[in-house]
Write a structure and sequence with these properties.
Strand order of the largest sheet: 12-11-10-13-14-15-16-17
Radius of gyration: 29 Å
Shape: globular
CATH class of the largest domain: Alpha Beta
Number of strands: 19
Number of helices: 28
CATH topology of the largest domain: 2-enoyl-CoA Hydratase, Chain A, domain 1
Oligomer: single chain
Bound molecules: (2S,3S)-3-hydroxy-2-methylbutanoyl-COA
Structural class: alpha/beta
CATH superfamily of the largest domain: 2-enoyl-CoA Hydratase, Chain A, domain 1
């Protein structure tokens, strides 16, 4: 099957690319496009050209798998230029997602026609890059700087309708008649002169020149979003070049910056994340024909914070949920919180009032446990206590129809022990959602020893359907994420009892790229989770803080002091409490460097990740990265803990762990000695 074929429809040459699954612009496609455009130029019987794609989408970009390999001519910029220089009009016929290099090909065309459902975007920035085939120079000329900036700097696609409104698309085709409409459009404009050459247009650049503040306003409005990232700033400079320089100079600058970003760590990390997220959805070692069970009705046991949040995921995906509580008050509270969450989202304009009512119409609250009987999947989100969970699974097994999946939302308890209480261990699985469950993307799918491939595959499919990023975990305390988090927490507690300040620990992690550090997190969540005034004996810093009423933001003070706007400041009282513990320990308080703080917090996490891999609790190192990126705010531009460890060097990490008295995991030790990496 050749990547590009042509056919003549009268005097219109129809060039069709076919490179499943997304028509990435790999070498064969680029060569095919080049040959077709050159052939059209030489053919006097051709008066116009249509470029289209077979399959589900127009070109979705350069072939990311080619990055890092020696470039093969023709390069994409050259193909775009060749198209643009054609003396015969070239029409891009767009469906699906015209992304990155795909949109750049379309921008090289003289006209663009798209179906209503098409999306057009330049997402290179999400890979730590910028459009490298003229996109930063042509898009501002075609759509204007004010609309080009967010498209290039944030990388989010726009609809065909929006694209038409900004001049990026010239005509909207019928959803099912794109090829015919594109050919008719090509014939219609075949004789029109002059050809609209994107790179030669100046009207929208002149407008930008007249509005000098457009860049400063954009940077000021988006400073927080751009923190720590190289590519967005580079994108802004490239668009500024489109305004300040000639096209030739601008595209030269674009190419320089592109290659600088391409070889930088951030882009390598973000490209790793792109493929890692897709790999996580794959389950190694199960038969390809493993069935996916139909999940038409979900049962939710527990209407608390987690039960309510989990429920919303299914309602929003159009899946009915029966939610059960033991008392009416708890049930009513749970349902009203679900409604309030939806109404708040509607207030922000992200969903309509009708969508709120539609979601709520799919919810059946009840006190009757037996109402769950005909569910295809029941998830329990009851109190985190194994005796209670065992009892729940016994009752579920006796009540729910045969073949239904029984899932626990436990965040660390043993799913196998729950399965053992049932006659259907093959249908028992863990679905560990992260709070707030209706917001956090991560879902740890915990595979029990006896969980069947069909139940596992069904759970992974369902996760995708409800918009979660799912990662398969084995059964161990804390699964993947919390197991590694506990290492970081232990080190954080140890560090402040050696002399590091809580605010220094938090600062080091936020400077690394986390949204907040462990002590800020504790204050936000509340220090008194699991604490009891009756039994507290001042045995830890947390005990004493809680005993002093310093229970976190909700009490105006925790590790930090908070003003009336919840602005935090280091607390002398906390410092005194910690100093008292250090004095009692007989240890000498010392200053701890930022470097030691970072190494002590993150290296033991990598070490635990190595143990998780050794024990086969995670399928692959990149899955561990996906857990931390989507569940704990690890900065994506460093790739996740295991990818980051590779960039630090496993030998350096193993040596440092030894220095800090942490026993090095055998897998980490072995890889360090062999100079190997995790990914
Ligand atoms: N290159 C190579 N493979 C790609 C690919 C790409 N651009 N896009 C997707 N795939 C693979 C993906 O790995 C998966 O493989 C399969 O296709 C289905 O993808 C010069 C330099 C198009 C919205 O960033 O956003 O152009 O796992 O599971 O959910 O300026 O894929 O099946 O083996 O994601 O339906 C810019 C990236 C590139 C778009 C479809 N373009 N792709 O989503 O399917 S850089 C992008 C996507 C560039 C130029 C620069 C999505 C999608 P496998 P999928 P999907």
């Amino acid at each position: 099957m050749s990547a590009v074929t042509t056919r003549k429809d009268g005097d219109v040459l129809v060039v069709s690319a076919n490179n499943p699954p997304v028509n990435a612009l790999g070498h064969a496609v680029r060569a095919g496009l080049e040959a077709a455009v050159k052939a059209a130029a030489a053919d006097s019987g051709v008066s116009a050209i249509v470029i289209r794609c077979e399959g589900r989408t127009f070109f979705a970009g350069a072939d990311i798998t080619e990055f890092g390999k020696p470039p093969q001519a023709p390069g994409l910029p050259d193909v775009c230029d060749l198209i643009e220089q054609s003396s015969k009009p070239v029409v891009a016929a767009i469906h699906g997602t015209a992304l990155g290099g795909g949109l750049e090909v379309a921008l090289g065309c003289h006209y663009r026609i798209a179906v209503p459902t098409a999306k057009l975007g330049l997402p290179e920035v999400k890979l730590g890059l910028l459009p490298g085939a003229g996109g930063t120079q042509r898009l501002p000329r075609v759509a204007g700087v004010a609309d080009a900036l967010p498209m290039i700097v944030f990388g989010d696609p726009v609809s065909a309708k929006k694209a038409e409104s900004i001049g990026l698309v010239d005509r909207i085709a019928g959803e099912d008649s794109l090829e015919a409409d594109a050919i008719a459009f090509a014939r219609e404009i075949a004789k029109k002169t002059p050809l609209p050459v994107s790179s030669a247009r100046t009207d929208k650049i002149e407008a930008a020149k007249a509005d000098a503040g457009v860049f400063e306003r954009f940077v000021t409005e988006n400073a927080r979003k751009l923190r720590g990232l190289d590519a967005p700033a580079a994108c802004i400079e490239a668009v500024r070049a489109a305004v300040d320089l000639s096209y030739a100079e601008g595209v030269k600058k674009e190419r320089e910056v592109f290659f600088k970003l391409l070889t930088g760590n951030q882009s390598k990390a973000l490209r790793h994340v792109f493929f890692a997220e897709r790999a996580a959805a794959k389950i190694d070692g199960i038969p390809a024909d493993t069935p996916v069970l139909p999940i038409k009705k979900v049962g939710m046991l527990g209407a608390g914070t987690m039960g309510g949040g989990i429920t919303m995921n299914f309602l929003s995906a159009g899946i009915p949920v029966t939610i059960v509580e033991r008392e009416q008050a708890a049930l009513d509270r749970g349902v009203s919180i679900i409604r309030k969450n939806y109404e708040n989202t509607a207030k922000k304009g992200r969903i309509t009032a009708e969508q709120v009512e539609k979601a709520m119409s799919l919810l059946t609250p009840t006190l009757d446990f037996n109402a769950l009987a005909d569910s295809d999947l029941v998830i329990e989100a009851v109190f985190e206590n194994m005796d209670i969970k065992r009892d729940v699974f016994r009752r579920l097994d006796a009540t729910i129809k045969p073949g239904a999946i029984l899932a626990s939302n436990t965040s660390y308890l043993n799913v196998d022990e729950m399965a053992a209480e049932t006659k259907r261990p093959e249908s028992v699985i863990g679905l560990h959602f992260f709070s707030p469950a209706n917001v956090m993307k991560l879902l740890e799918v915990v595979r029990g020893a006896k969980t069947s491939p069909a139940v596992l595959k069904t759970s992974m499919e369902l996760a995708r359907k409800i918009g979660k990023v799912a990662v398969v975990s084995g059964v161990c305390p804390g699964f993947i994420g919390n197991r590694m988090l506990s290492q970081r927490q232990a080190q954080a507690q140890a560090l402040i009892l050696e002399g590091a300040k809580p605010w220094d620990v938090d600062r080091v992690l936020t400077q690394f790229g986390f949204p907040m550090g462990p002590f800020q997190m504790s204050d936000l969540a509340g220090l008194d989770i699991g604490w009891s005034a009756e039994t507290s004996k001042s045995e830890s810093v947390r005990d004493v803080l809680c005993e002093r009423g310093r229970r976190g933001q909700k009490t105006g003070k925790g590790f930090y002091d908070y003003d009336e706007n919840r602005k935090s400041s280091p607390s002398p009282e906390t410092e005194a409490i910690i100093a008292d513990f250090i004095a009692k320990s007989g240890k000498q308080q010392r200053a701890v460097s930022d470097e030691e703080i970072l190494e002590r917090l993150l290296y033991p996490m990598v070490n635990e990740g190595a143990k998780i891999l050794e024990e086969k609790m995670a399928q692959r190192a990149s899955d561990i990265d996906i857990v931390w990126l989507n569940g704990y705010g690890w900065p994506a531009y460093t790739g996740g803990p295991m990818f980051w460890a590779d960039t630090v060097g496993l030998d350096k990490i193993a040596a440092a762990l030894g220095k800090y008295g942490v026993e090095v995991a055998p897998l980490l030790k072995a890889k360090a000695e062999k100079g190997e990496s995790f990914n």
